[in-house]
Amino acid sequence: MSIYDYSVTLDNGTTYSLSKYRGQPMVIVNTATKCGFAPQFGQLEEIYKQYQNQGLVILGFPSDQFHQEIGDGQAAAAACRTTYGVTFPMHAVGPVNGEEAQPLFGYLTEKAPGALGTKKIKWNFTKFLVDRDGNVVARFAPKTTPDKMIPAIKQVL
């Protein structure tokens, strides 16, 4: 399977295939609006604005896996838009670990394991970089701020 075989659901309930982004680099991030790392939304938005004309897309996936998300996808997206000015696509709230995890996150963690080879997402704001060919090329820890991802992003542009 490739990343383009996965379908995801936007905050408004619309489901689509990631094949929509074929040929575009992606940053995929699990988010939580009540997390201490939530200010990263601002940096992610800055990166999105700076590089979207070169094809970059950032996809936010709210999760309450760590009990730091509000309500449903629409409430989470509204909070991101209001507080941080987020304009990149936000998705439905869903788990990122375990048997109930969104299939996309099982794929991402398989292709880009964490420290010591772990396939588990340890916290909110784990970020995955996907190149134009759909390859998962990097995984960034929650504490890694988005601005530290810019060199890697430039390589896939």
TrEMBL record:
SUPFAM superfamilies: Thioredoxin-like. It holds the Pfam family GSHPx. It comes from the Bacteria. One of its GO terms (molecular function) is peroxidase activity. Residues 1-157 form the Thioredoxin domain. Keywords: Oxidoreductase, Peroxidase. Belongs to the glutathione peroxidase family. This is Glutathione peroxidase. It comes from Lacticaseibacillus jixianensis. The lineage of its organism: Bacteria, Bacillati, Bacillota, Bacilli, Lactobacillales.
